[in-house]
Amino acid sequence: MPVIDAWMQHPTVRHQNHEMLESLRRWTGLGLLEEPLPVRATVEAMDAAGVEIALSSAWYGPQGPLISNDEVAGFVAGSNGRLRGVAGVDLTRPVRAVRELRRAVDDLGFVALRLVPWLWQLPPTDRLYYPLYAACVDLGIPFCTQVGHTGPLRPSETGRPIPYIDQIALDFPELTIVCGHIGYPWTTEMIAVADKHVNVYIDTSAYTVERYPRELAEYLRGRGRRKVLFGSNYPMITPAHALEHLDELQLDDEARELFLSGNARRVFDL
After folding, report:
1. Which of 14, 9, 59, 13 is nearest to 36 (CA)?
2. Which of 8, 42, 159, 181 is 20 to 30 A from 151, comparing alpha carbons?
3. 24 three-class SS
4. What is the CATH number assigned to the segment(s) 3-267?
5. At CA 269, angle to CA 91 and CA 265, rounded to 5?
6. In the 8-state DSSP scheme, what is residue 59?
7. Region 213-225: what's the mean pLDDT?
8. Total-model pTM
9. Residue ranges per domain, the chain?
10. How far apart are CA 213 and CA 78, in angstroms?
């Protein structure tokens, strides 16, 4: 059964070696990069888990891009059709950010925008995000963000599903919102928000199957089967490792297909 990885990044040296990711390197055993990682290494990691397509994201923060949109475009071009680009922008320059998002979608063919609120230490209801939400609706692309606690050494408050994701979905009912990292320890809140809003989804990035909270596993098997997308958070977790205990979820064929690829194919219009 084909797999689509909804949350990953092909890293640059300055991204993977950044000091804020030290805690993740400690947890995962991921080493520092001494030289740029070839795209073929990422494609090989995808092949090991049957990943057909992976959404490779840019990373923009207050100190500048750790992975720029143009670098992502280069990775996509070198992947033989296996990667799709997800844009990043400088949140503090809203007019320039909207123009850059439009360039990434219209010129580079990117399929979504991702902003990680803890990088900016601004909750996703801050006014600086709102021009970008309107642009995403206008461009017909999803907005991807992080929910739950922050593994890197930054505050976690910005990852609360309630009130932040709930409020965005109320303000922009046409906006498709994909919430990565399952929302732990507020997973029940995240499920409630996904149930409430037709265009809100959850992806499982940064968690292996054996670490899914019970309520998320039950949601996947039942009413949430069209609401949850697989994500790995590669290179911190490889897709093969993330899916190692997939059978233990006891998904029926429909739920399994939707989780592994069907939902992502529909949500990102792949």
Report:
1. 13
2. 42
3. helix
4. 3.20.20.140
5. 110
6. E
7. 98
8. 0.95
9. 3-267
10. 36
